[in-house]
Specification:
The complex is a heterodimer of chains A (560) and B (320). Chain A is an alpha/beta fold and 560 residues long. Chain A has a domain at 294-524: P-loop containing nucleotide triphosphate hydrolases (Rossmann fold, 3-Layer(aba) Sandwich). Helices cover 35% and strands 24% of the residues of chain A. Chain A has 20 helices and 20 strands. Chain A has helices at 68-74, 101-108, 120-123, 130-140, 146-159, 178-191, 208-225, 236-242, 260-265, 270-276, 334-342, 368-373, 391-403, 407-420, 437-450, 467-484, 495-501, 519-522, 529-537, 545-552; strands at 19-32, 40-53, 57-61, 83-92, 95-96, 113-116, 196-200, 228-233, 245-250, 253-259, 294-302, 309-318, 323-327, 349-354, 357-358, 374-377, 455-459, 487-492, 504-509, 512-518. In chain A, strand 17 (455-459), helix 16 (467-484) and strand 18 form a beta-alpha-beta unit. In chain A, helix 6 runs parallel beside helix 7. By secondary structure, chain B is mostly helical. Chain B contains 15 helices and no strands. Chain B has helices at residues 5-34, 39-44, 50-60, 66-78, 92-127, 132-146, 149-163, 179-185, 187-213, 216-223, 228-257, 260-265, 271-280, 284-312, 314-317. Chain B starts with a helix and ends with a helix. Classes of the chains: A alpha/beta (560), B mainly alpha (320).
């Protein structure tokens, strides 16, 4: 799609008496500090306008850097970090809140507009009880006495189906689960009885099985209280469940804005269409061969020799040039399995056979070839690379370490590897900070490939990436697998990814493998209760999916 | 092991502290043994006869093996007997008592002013961060730490004792001295100490709170419409307590242990003066006793800091 301005159809304007929020020609800038260059201002949001009627929900959707959170926060006259609102108007309840001054802004935040953050675990103050934080804004702005506010809060806790609604407020943030905390945060926003709530990716950090409950709770609360909402997310399937209208953003500009049904059923812009249809890669599953490259047998492991076993009698096989996907919610032991296989966490019982030999349990007892043939790629590419080393140094390091390559030979191989990850040797002198998220992950893949491994463990390698970027990474991984005959142990919580890449699947739940086999078998009924819950919790881009999914499930999710 | 995890953690810290104190006592004893010079010779002077020296050594028990002397010394301390000063033949505990009291008096009143002042300045610096107030506070603090305490001491004497004649230049205190006069006597040494410890505490307070100000829950508070001062007071400060208490305790320890120079400058009859006098005379029992008291103060204040950090952590106070 070209960068030139195009005409965007907008939904009909709300009637004047219904109009709650109007943003006109919003322009937001931030100062960036690129390495080795002088700081400069970049435009994050450019000329975005929107209107929102009382009691309606507008979904803001886009990839990271689209400016959706920034627009959401502008409805509270707030700029995160060095972000400045430099142009336009934000009219809330009939006045431009950008012109009300510091005191005016303080009076409306937490009273007329409230905020629900992505990570409630970080957004609650660990030093105070939940109730004190939930009622704080209502009391501060004088919308209720303490007793009234607490009564209101307990009512909201009940409405959001939190357990023990009368006493949960006495707890500290660390004493309740992530899904519960997210609901308490929603109650906190509703407690001041605001006109508008800004939901900033409220379910993104949750497990898919927990997300569905929180989503349903938020949806009910919005409907029952009649509050209006800006719902920010990168997941179109999620936003389709809660919004009346959806606004698609890219690079700080409006792409398309329309009713929810129109956006997901009849997208008018090419970019929206790409978002709607991104998920599928057809991947033909390979049958198991005679000799697995890696065979983990009866692995039992615990942290610090404690009584709680994080892995219980886990056995899986990975075949040469194939992919085993390990799925499950957080805490199910997926990453611990990777740690046990790599020797970072020596298992208490069981053994790992790799390429025909039995691996030592502890990392320090393994040979250099053991280390070389078993590589790892991580979720957070930025922290897995030394920010002070260039791409050339990062990829060249395993070449020196494992193969003793030096000078021109090494540089030639680095250039080859950069070609393989579709980046080219122009990147050789760049620093990680100069790369995008997807490019960083590609460099990590090249570094793993440099060792000529037989198996690469991929731990949530696409989870931190935008869907379109993640799609590119998955295609790259599949292509490399074909060329290099490398096997993957692919850890993920995302079932769409699993379908795209796996040959066999292991479903983990509370440290055990509950379902294991070839992809086609694992994903066909009859299902065990947990796999059923997992599969039915994956949001589908379909109106009314949420209600249907909640009604149809056989097992309560752990987030309750 | 049962009971609440918090009590167990505290018990562990206290036990570690006691163990550490024993280790320090052994080190102090060993250290004073290595020091060159002979106590008997220094008591009797250059002209002493070998017989006299031998007799004195016998009398002082200096001929026994080191470990016997160590346990004799340790046993004495545990029963409240710090031994006898070699040079003056006085009981150390009785001489030391009032001097320890004086040092604690000076430290206490300095702390009473310094700690709240440092935390208040730290909070103000955060509230007006990067503005002129913050820069003024930081600049003043940096200047005062950069100046050595003896220099500050003499500056104070020059201006406030000699020129303005507001306070005495020699901080004499004695038993039965009226409280207000005592306070007046310690104003100058107290100020010198205050200027040394203030900057460190204030800068750490500022850094600790600023660190917390980056957290998401501070943003939450801001989006609830709280004022800056309330955000700092209610949401940032409670989470910065542990590092602040740590630096406060470190400086409290300095107020007791590090007063030597300031006490000498102002001729203040405290532990520091006493220590310096007896180091010069090679009076080993006194040096050992004072060293051990300093170590005890240091270790116990650190235990207090540790316990405060444990108590400040809601995860430990309220386990799941």
């Amino acid at each position: 799609m070209s960068g030139t301005a195009h005409h965007v159809d907008t939904p009909p304007r709300p009637k004047p008496e219904d109009l709650l929020l109007e943003i006109r020609n919003l322009k937001i800038e931030a100062r960036v500090y690129p390495p080795g260059e002088t700081p400069r201002d970049v435009t994050i949001v450019d000329g975005v306008s929107l209107t929102l009627a009382r009691g309606k929900v507008l979904g803001l959707i886009g990839e990271s850097g689209a400016g959706k959170s920034t627009i959401g926060l502008s409805a509270m006259a707030y700029g995160r970090g060095g972000v400045r609102i430099t142009g336009g108007e934000v009219i809330l309840n009939g006045r431009d809140i950008l012109k009300t001054g510091k005191d005016g802004v303080r009076k409306l935040r937490g009273a007329e507009v409230c905020y629900v953050a992505q990570s409630a675990a970080a957004a609650f103050n660990p030093a105070h009880r939940l109730m004190d934080q939930v009622v704080e804004a209502a009391i501060l702005h004088g919308s209720a006495t303490r007793a009234e506010a607490e009564k209101r809060a307990k009512h909201l806790f009940r409405k959001l189906s939190l357990p023990n609604p009368d006493t949960i407020g006495d707890r500290y943030p660390h004493q309740v689960s992530g899904g519960q905390l997210q609901r308490v945060m929603t109650a906190m926003a509703l407690c001041s009885e605001p006109d508008l709530i800004v939901f900033d990716e409220p379910t993104t950090a949750l497990d898919v099985t927990t997300q569905i409950d929180v989503l349903a709770a938020i949806k009910d609360a919005i409907r029952d209280t009649g509050v209006a909402a800006l719902y920010i997310t990168h997941d179109l399937a999620v936003v389709a469940q809660v919004s009346d209208e959806i606004m698609v953003l890219r690079h700080g500009k409006l792409v398309e804005w329309g009713g929810t049904r129109q956006i997901i059923k009849e997208p008018r812009q090419e970019y929206t269409n790409a978002l709607v249809s991104v998920h599928h890669i057809e991947h033909e599953e390979h049958a198991p061969t005679a000799n697995p490259i890696l065979s983990a047998r009866n692995i039992t492991a615990a942290y610090g020799g404690g009584p709680v076993k994080v892995l219980k009698n886990v056995s899986v096989d990975i075949f040469p040039g194939q992919t085993l996907a390990v799925v499950g919610e957080s805490g199910s032991g997926k990453s611990t399995l990777a740690r046990a296989i790599t020797g970072l966490l020596p298992p208490e019982e069981g053994s790992v056979a790799f390429n025909g030999r039995t691996l030592s349990k502890a990392l320090k007892d393994r040979t250099r070839d053991d280390l070389r043939e078993l590589q790892m790629i991580y979720q957070m590419a930025d922290v897995a690379m030394n920010p002070r080393q260039t791409v050339g140094t990062i990829i060249g390091r395993p070449l020196e370490f494992y193969f003793g390559m030096k000078g021109r030979e090494r540089d030639k191989r680095v250039a080859e590897l950069l070609d393989k990850i579709e980046m080219g040797k122009g990147f050789i002198d760049r620093y990680p900070a100069e790369l995008s998220g997807g490019q960083k992950q590609r460099v990590c893949i090249a570094r793993a490939l440099a060792a000529k491994p037989k198996l690469i463990i991929c731990d949530e390698v696409t989870s931190a990436l935008d869907p379109l970027v993640a799609h590119g990474i998955l295609e790259l991984l599949l292509g490399l697998q074909k060329d290099e005959n490398v096997a993957y142990l692919f850890i993920t919580h995302d079932l769409a990814t699993v379908k795209s890449i796996a040959d066999s699947i292991a479903v983990m739940y509370r440290g055990e493998v509950v379902r294991y086999g070839p992809k086609s078998k694992v994903l066909s009924p009859p299902f065990d209760a947990y796999t059923d819950l997992l599969l039915s919790s994956v949001p589908e881009m379909e109106l009314g999916w949420l209600e249907k999914a909640i009604k149809g499930r056989r097992m309560e999710s752990a987030g309750n | 092991m049962g009971g609440s995890p918090i009590l167990r953690l505290i018990a562990q810290r206290v036990a570690m502290g006691i163990l550490l104190l024993f280790a320090v006592s052994a080190l102090i004893f060993a250290g004073t043994q290595i020091l060159p010079g002979d106590v008997a010779a220094s008591i009797l002077g250059q002209s002493a006869t070998p017989t006299a020296l031998a007799n004195l050594r016998q009398e002082l028990g200096l001929n026994d093996p080191a470990y016997v002397r160590y346990f004799r010394w340790l046993g004495g301390i545990l029963t409240g007997d710090l031994g006898t000063a070699l040079t003056t033949r006085q009981d150390i505990a009785t001489t030391l008592g009032p001097r320890l009291w004086n040092t604690l008096f000076l430290a206490f009143w300095t702390a009473v002013v310094a700690i709240p002042l440092a935390i208040l300045l730290g909070l103000l610096a955060v509230r007006y961060r990067n503005g002129p107030i913050d820069k003024a506070i930081s600049g003043f603090a940096l200047a005062s730490t950069s100046l050595p305490e003896f220099f500050i001491g003499y500056l104070l004497i020059f201006f406030f004792a000699v020129k303005l004649q507001w306070f005495p230049s020699i901080s004499t205190v004695y038993d039965g001295m009226p409280f207000l006069e005592k306070l007046q006597a310690i104003v100058l040494p107290g100020t010198a100490l205050l200027l040394v410890v203030l900057a460190h505490m204030m800068r750490m307070t500022r850094a600790a709170i600023l660190n917390v100000m980056q957290s998401a829950y501070v943003e939450t508070a801001e989006l609830k419409g709280l004022s800056q001062l309330n955000i700092i007071r209610k949401h940032a400060f409670p989470n910065a307590i542990a590092p602040i208490v740590n630096v406060v305790m470190l400086n409290l320890a300095f107020l007791v242990v590090g007063v030597v120079v300031v006490e000498v400058i102002f001729v203040y009859p405290g532990m520091g003066q006493y220590l310096v006098d007896h180091v010069a005379k090679r009076d080993v029992p006194v040096v050992q006793a004072v060293g051990l008291i300093f170590a005890a103060v240091y270790i116990s204040l650190n235990i207090v800091a540790d316990i405060a950090s444990i108590l400040a952590n809601p995860r430990l106070r309220h386990p799941r």
